[in-house]
What we know:
Strand order of the largest sheet: 8-9-10-11-22-18-17-14-15
Mean pLDDT: 81
Structural class: alpha+beta
Largest sheet: 9 strands, antiparallel
Distance between the termini: 44 Å
Number of strands: 27
Strand content: 25-35%
Radius of gyration: 27 Å
Low-confidence stretches: 1-47, 100-105
Amino acid sequence: MKKLLSFLLCLACVSSAAMLMSCQGDTPDETIDESKDPAIDQPEKEQTKDVEVALFSGDSEIRLIPTNNSLKVTYLATKASGKSLVAENSEYALPKQTDGTTASSKAVKFNWNYVDREDVSLTESGVEITGYKFIYEDSTGIAGLEVLCLASESLNGPFEFRMNLINKSTEDGLYIMPDSFSSISFDSLNDDASVMAIKKEGYLAEGYLHRNGHINEGTGIELYDITSDLNVVTSFTSSIHYTENFYLPMIYVTNGSDNGFYTAFEWTTGRILATSNDGERLTLSVDMDEVSEHGGEFLTIVPAGDTFVFPPVYYGVYDGSLDDGSNTFKKWFFDCKATATLRDNPNEPLIQNDHQWIIAEAEERGLESVKWDYGWWARLNNYDVNWGKLEGSWELRNPEHIHMINREGCTTMPEFGQYLNDKGIHWTVYVLLHDTVDYDMMSSDQYGEFNSIDHPDWFGYQRISQQGRSADLGNEECVEYLKTALTDFFN
Length: 491
């Protein structure tokens, strides 16, 4: 249920009525042109300015006030406690700077005029979602901004913020945003409050005992006391090279066993920051992409008339211990964000092992899925130091995998797929959307269409683990090719 605190709205209506009556009294013999009367023609957007609105999830409530250049967060609490943890004058960050369009190299500060508020109602993953869209327009007219705050009343969990930056210019614009694009400040912290960051451990777990006897120190969980110089920076990336140690894209703050709050970011690359200047007011904010790696500004070109869509950010509060908060978020994420196959298949998560199992043994041990990991396309053993050779070419060459399907009486991948399907065993096959490379790790057009020689604009410059360049999934032509190619491959 959405709730509108409408005192100011009512006051505006009363004022308009009074002005209209006064005007009619002064001109009794004249016909009033209502289309030109300033009291009647006052845009409705003015009536929604500075009005506090409330939005509810299953267990929480947030209140917001849209104004020029800001979206104030005035309240965030669980329904059970009614105790808001939001600090006074907390604001959700809005993009602050651009250099205008390509016709102007002068940096221009955004001056966001609040325009209007719209109710939002939609269904995603079978879950009904309600919320608000707050609409802003830059005073120069070159850009528009939409900030959405969404929640599901049927589910306990966080509030989701989405944001769209619209280039209203007639020219392409290079947008530079040097600051965080999302933030909320909190206080009411206990003396034992702490910030928790979680290492991703995509390859090398902390505390893991290696075969050489070395133990990688740590637990993967970092706790920080909230002090006047607190500056926790959790960077995350799609890279999983074992020498790199990044974080999960979320931060929890716990008030001991009383309550707490958190934020999470729905993107592969960026950083979440927890900062405090006085040990009492704590700000959680979100940056993205190159900012996390280089500490610079985020910038992107937005074509004329096009929209840049910021990744969603979640903010939530909870009562009880950290376990209570994390379990609430986990259940909400599963219900709202997990793929349908995970929710609809009662056997998920499947019991899975790598390709070396003989299928009969896999069945005896109750395994439900066989996984082909990285390298099945290369003519080499899994432990070859050059395991990235022929990456991007989806043709079976690896002798270990070929031996595996041969001992099951199969000679091709389609035969093996049908064999597993007949036995009711799931098959996971890694297919990387990378530039095709040859045996010398150089881009190659010898093994298929998906390569940067034939299509240089289909690939970005990011290299995961120093392998082939990653596909640019912002390129529509590339995406259309991959839709067909992947469908054909998996069929």
